[in-house]
Write a structure and sequence with these properties.
single chain; 281 residues; mainly alpha
Length: 281
């Protein structure tokens, strides 16, 4: 009997040292304020955003493939950041030629590959979103490749770009509709994930309006295009933030990235239930 009690005490001590993860002793960081110290069950919630899945969480310890979402989000963020700065006419730069290379290689090619890997790991939402936006950037680059596919020239009639501007406005409005569909699917996820698609949705809407509702000179409406650029910058930073949430896990970070769960989400309900149970004890 005494032996059984001693073995139980030893097992409990081991479990405490390993934070419930068998086989690995917790490191002593010497009072490091960023050390991962679990104080409650809510502190053990994994970071969301990088998993690119509005539904349930999946344990990273059981993952057989690397998480492709941070790669796709980072590719989207950088290319969107560059184009949005141009839309804001930052330092007088107004021509989008520089973004063509990023749109082909990083925002287009790399993001498309990340979307295909999301398909491989069984994430329908991630595969649809990343692959589609990868296709967006590739089609954007094809449209604006200087001297390449001559799409702009073929839609310029008698020196007037009205037909091209209208066509490009239709293109952007179509992506606004698609992004709205994805936005609806993020309502059960987190605030950080929702804001990414919310800002992107507004950016597409404003840019589309800017091309369709032109100024007196027949050019894209500058104030509306700049407003779209502002929301594009916000979308880019939210994409980077969600990518960081996916990168910073228990294998490389002392802390988790706060992403704020909606109260009606699965994790939000679990947190309220756990809080209620603690209060009733």
């Amino acid at each position: 009997m005494t032996t059984n009690v001693a073995e139980a005490d030893a097992a409990a001590a081991t479990n405490k040292e390993t934070n419930g993860v068998g086989g690995h002793r917790a490191y002593d960081y010497g009072g490091n304020p960023l050390a991962r110290n679990t104080t409650s069950e809510s502190a053990r919630l994994p970071a969301f955003g990088g998993e690119f899945q509005p539904g349930a969480y999946r344990d990273i310890a059981q993952r057989k493939f690397a998480n492709p979402a941070p790669l796709g989000l980072s590719a989207f963020a950088l290319t969107t950041f560059i184009l949005s700065l141009i839309n804001l006419n930052t330092r007088g730069v107004a021509s989008p030629n520089i973004v063509v290379a990023s749109a082909y290689a990083y925002g287009g090619g790399v993001q498309l590959l990340a979307g295909m890997w999301e398909m491989a790991v069984g994430n329908t939402f991630g595969a649809t979103a990343l692959s589609s936006y990868g296709g967006f950037w590739i089609s954007f680059a094809i449209t604006l490749t200087p001297g390449g596919f001559e799409i702009v020239d073929s839609l310029t009639i008698n020196g007037s770009e009205i037909e091209f501007l209208d066509s490009f406005g239709f293109f952007l409005m179509g992506w606004f509709i698609f992004t709205t569909i994805l936005l609806v699917c993020t309502l059960r996820s987190t605030v950080a994930f929702f804001l990414l698609f919310f800002f992107l949705d507004l950016a597409f809407l404003l840019l589309g309006i800017g091309y369709l509702h032109r100024n007196s000179a027949g050019a894209p409406n500058p104030p509306i295009i700049k407003a779209g650029g502002v929301f594009g910058i916000l979308a880019a930073f939210m994409a980077w933030y969600n990518a960081l949430a996916g990168l910073a896990d228990s294998s490389n970070s002392f802390f988790l990235i706060p992403v704020l769960h909606f109260p009606w989400s699965d994790k939000g309900r679990e947190s309220r239930l756990a809080k209620t149970e603690r209060q009733t004890v």
